[in-house]
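dude i think i finally got it to work??
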Amino acid sequence: PNTRFIDNAVIRMIADSDTVNDRMAARKLGWSKYPELIRTLYNQLAATDYFQAYMSASESSFKADAALLATFFEKELQDCPMLDDVLEEQSILWSDDLGFVLTLVIRTISNMRQSHADVKMLPEFKSDEDAEFVKTLFEKTLINYNERLEYIEKFTRNWDVERIVFMDNLIMATAITELVSFPSIPVKVTLDEYIDIAKFYSTPGSSTFINGVLDKIVEALTEEGKLKKPDGD
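look at this
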């Protein structure tokens, strides 16, 4: 029998990786509860031309093993309703992050070498500063949330602030925190980021509403001297 797929060196390295297994154990992750998903994905892979070419190649190599997996993650998982259902069962946020996660998985596979003793995982954050930024942004938004809502209410007089979608309030409150607490971030960068977040996570029309309110808030914060940004920002 053709055991090339079973003998795939990249799959074996991942399966034997202390780094991968330790992280899975710490987060209590695993696929043993989803045999139907695994069966479906394997059958989907086995039916592809690139899998048939891999299995029938005259020679095997670590590079070919890695290429097979990278292609699988690129082509088969982005649009897989059964996988989406499994991810949402574990966290409602995971399905939204799938595209980004697949990019990181493919990058990790591309960086693997047969000489490596273990899988070299990409860091959770680009730098310690990024991790500290997220923590500080969250903490300051949480501590000052009611104050932020009161400030938002001044610019939504025709709206009942309690009836504004919770996600809209959260997005605007976090944006205000970033505006006043992180002077090195240009105003336009902050506004563009949170408008994009609204498009992705909130209701239709929310991005337009949030854009209008944040424009007024930026103007008011500037007049009040609360917006300390470098010249030109």
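The chain has a mean pLDDT of 90.
im so relieved honestly
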